[in-house]
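Researcher: Before we compare anything, I want clean individual predictions. No alignment, no superposition, just each chain on its own. First chain goes here; please echo the sequence and then give the structure tokens.
Model: Echoing the first chain and its structure:
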Amino acid sequence: MLNIVIQPKLFSPRVSRREMLRNLASAAAAMPFITAAHPIHKHLTSLSALEAADASRSAVEWKPVFLRKEQSSLLLALSEGIVPGAAAAEAHRFIDLLLSVDTPENQQNFIHSLEAIDAASNSRFEKHFRLLTPDQQTEILTQASTMTPAHESSTGDAAAANEPRNLRNHFDDLKAWISLAYYSSEAGMTELGWTSNRVFKAFPSCTHPDGHL
């Protein structure tokens, strides 16, 4: 459960994503799968970048700024597979704009994560992830989400921290980006309990029956 106190003055029928993200900055800390080192945290305090990303997200002639077209399509499919509703909320567009002003290292890590999921899809089904059936996509995401991260061993051995990232690490990285992009949208905030007429002292937990991968 996300225990976040929202100030009443921030709620209005036209509340902006920037105002929502100001509140969700503390929500990130309440999501155990989003580490403090994840680059999304920096964007939660960069309001000018967030405002620009939100303005561009809904443009009629939208096209990716940082990602290639096929990478954006892959992110769109992954977004919906990891957080149902994220595609309709255009989380992939928001992430693309944030990545366009991020560091080269963070950009490259994100691309590597996309490529890792697509490589697993090609290895298992000989198809790109975005071309899989919903059941096949779920199989790949379930595989990725249930692996032990490379930074951890089953015994907690600290030496494992020197291992390169595996499919689980890449999945967790993408999940953090997608989750915060979705839950900063009006649809995501509404799912957590926000309305334009009421103030919730704490948000309820996710309402999806099976949770998120």
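Researcher: Okay. Second chain, same rules.
Model: Second chain and its structure:
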Amino acid sequence: MSLRSEERRICPRCGESYSYVEKISIGERSYLYAVHYYVDENGRRRKRRCYLGPVDGYEYVSKTHEIIFYGLDKQDRYIRYLEEITDLFNVNEPISTDPEEFKKEFENIMRTRSLVKKISYKIDERLRKILETIVSDIKASLDLLKKDYSDDPQAQDIIKELEAFNKKIDITILDKNFVNEETIRSYVERYLLLKQRLKQLHKALPISGSQASS
């Protein structure tokens, strides 16, 4: 279970909301804790901590392996593990012709190859989900703008941009092979820029009657 964003403040250890992350140093090492506040049976405010792991990774556990293990505060720790595992594969290392060693090497490589295919499939499905989320969010934003800001010039400019972008990225969703990584990154960057513009627009424009009643 990964650490959720600070905005949501959900503890990956117990699943409950927390107030902040506290760093406690012991000697040369620092450790992270999610701090929870609660009211006890006497009505007094209490604090409890959930351990998230060391700041710089698990030193003693990592010594017995060839990769570094991280605490729950590292949201990208699984990606880091994959990067480090990939570095362990030495393609130039000679292959042993001993029957037992050869068989073990072959089976390990075939298992790894199968796992890589599964990972690749899941990544493509997750990427499709990301793109579908962009499309659905853009359509929802268009509906909102047309409903609440149909007469505003600033909103009309953004509506035109959203419609053009929606048409372009919708084609990508229909293409089962997607497009190249550079194009997908450009879509995400454009989406985030449009989201920022929408945020600024909502701050600048007065709330319409339909918004106020919703």
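Researcher: What stands out in the second chain?
Model: The first helix runs from residue 59 to 63. Additionally, The chain is about 55% helix and 15% strand.
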